From TrEMBL:
Membrane as UniProt keyword: yes
Segments passing through the bilayer: 36-56, 76-95, 141-168
Protein name, as recorded: Uncharacterized protein
Keyword tags: Membrane, Transmembrane, Transmembrane helix
Lineage of the organism: Bacteria, Pseudomonadati, Campylobacterota, Epsilonproteobacteria, Campylobacterales
Domain of life: Bacteria
């Protein structure tokens, strides 16, 4: 069998000089960091904001502090830092080291795997994709609620409760992008693609699970780290779902 014949095994001729990849014979398989990021991002931003505010308390001269108040402040600050680090370390072990989460793209399906067992299977021809800053399924209603909350916070002068969580969100993603990829290149605050193709009842469960910060959602998010994988997935969606990833709707709330 010559080289051309071998190539035809993995690609389908489209009637021109272009070839379409046969994803059944050569599927895309990516390591998915969904569980880790969903379990950590929102809790980190909330608790780290508390830590930052407690830290800034030392630099607010208008409040005179007694030694007892300083001690209590230090204890609370230390508690949040230790608990936060332990939570991240444990979830990293569980979500990244102990278990293997992967997503496989074939010609007709996108399959979410945990330790080689399928947990969710989606038809590639029926997808609704979006990109979310907070890594959660979103909608216009949720976006409006968050905007109204932000306006209220700004009106009462607590702007730092908006700025600090947003900054922490970006820093968290940036730090673990470097951890997982080993480089800064390719970083994006919208590295996650939400596949929101679930029945409405399941979507509601996802919203409540994420917003409580207690239950990590499962198998609705593709967290893409490296550029090569992004290009492969982009080509897949263009071929199978007629979706251009660069034009996917972005949700900031």
């Amino acid at each position: 069998m010559n080289t051309a014949d071998k190539k035809d095994l993995n690609f389908t001729n489209l009637g021109s000089d272009k070839f379409e990849r046969d994803y059944d014979k050569e599927p895309i398989v990516i390591k998915n960091y969904e569980r880790f990021f969903v379990a950590n991002l929102l809790p980190f931003c909330i608790f780290a904001t508390v830590v930052v505010m407690l830290g800034l308390d030392y630099f607010w001269p208008e409040f005179d502090k007694t030694p007892r108040q300083i001690l209590v402040n230090n204890i609370i600050l230390g508690y949040f830092i230790v608990q936060g680090l332990l939570y991240i370390i444990i979830s990293y072990y569980v979500c990244v080291i102990k278990n293997r989460f992967e997503v496989k793209f074939t010609s007709n399906f996108i399959c979410f795997y945990k330790n080689d067992k399928i947990e969710r299977k989606l038809a590639s021809c029926d997808l609704n994709l979006s990109k979310s800053f907070w890594l959660m399924p979103s909608s216009r209603i949720i976006e409006i609620i968050f905007i109204l909350m932000c306006i209220l916070i700004l009106c009462i002068g607590l702007w730092y409760f908006i700025v600090i969580p947003i900054a922490l969100n970006i820093l968290f993603k940036l730090f673990f992008h470097i951890v997982f990829s080993g480089r800064l290149k390719g970083f994006s605050i919208f590295s996650a693609i939400v596949i929101n193709g679930l029945p409405q009842s399941d979507q509601q469960l996802q919203y409540s699970g994420y917003l409580t910060g207690l239950v990590a959602n499962k198998n609705y998010l593709l967290y893409i780290i490296d550029k090569k994988t992004y290009i492969e997935v982009k080509e897949y969606f263009e071929q199978k779902s007629d979706i251009e990833m660069d034009k996917i709707k972005k949700y900031y709330f």
